[in-house]
Amino acid sequence: MKVKKADEIEAKPAQMEGAVGVSVRVLIHEPDGATNFRMRLFELDPGGNTPLHEHDWEHEVYVLDGSGLVVTEAGEHMASAGMCVFVPAGEKHQFRNTGARAWKFLCLVPVTAK
After folding, report:
1. Model-level pTM?
2. What is the pLDDT of residues 47-101, one digit of tens each?
3. Integer distance in angstroms from the first to the last C-alpha of the chain?
4. How many other C-beta atoms are found inside a 10 Å radius of the C-beta of residue 110?
5. Fold of 48-114
């Protein structure tokens, strides 16, 4: 077992072309012994966004603080603290902070995700 403080893990700029004001903390991953899932904490600055993109893997997202839009080709959905989002594999999606403070959410993906 490992127990850590999330705020002691370095926040790094998102390595996605087109990401604006996005940082990521990899909370739990392979070096911790995780063999199935990777847990990441995303923080989007006000006005920040991920690019509209898709992956071969699903995402499970839980919003901790702030609010923003989850954008898909089918439309937009507001997501705020206490809400969860499921993004199926292959679905184009974008996270866009429309609020006045940081939008923080956990994102869980398979360890095979890049």
Report:
1. 0.95
2. 999 999 999 999 999 999 999 999 999 999 999 999 999 999 999 999 999 999 9
3. 24
4. 14
5. Jelly Rolls (2.60.120)
Distance CA 36, CA 29 (A): 9
A 10 A CB-CB count for 9 gives 15
- The residues, any chain, with a CB within 8 Å of residue 63's CB and separated by 6 or more, are 79, 80, 81, 82, 83, 84, 85, 103, 104, 105
Contact criterion met (CB below 8 Å) for 51 and 16: yes
Q: Could you tell me if residue 87 is left (phi over 0), alpha (psi between -120 and 50 degrees) or otherwise beta?
A: beta
> 101 is written with which tokens?
């403070």
- What are the structural domain ranges in the chain? 48-114
| CB proximity list for 75: less than 8 A, separation 6 or greater | none
Q: Cα dist. 36→3, 49, 96, 103 in Å?
A: 18, 27, 28, 26
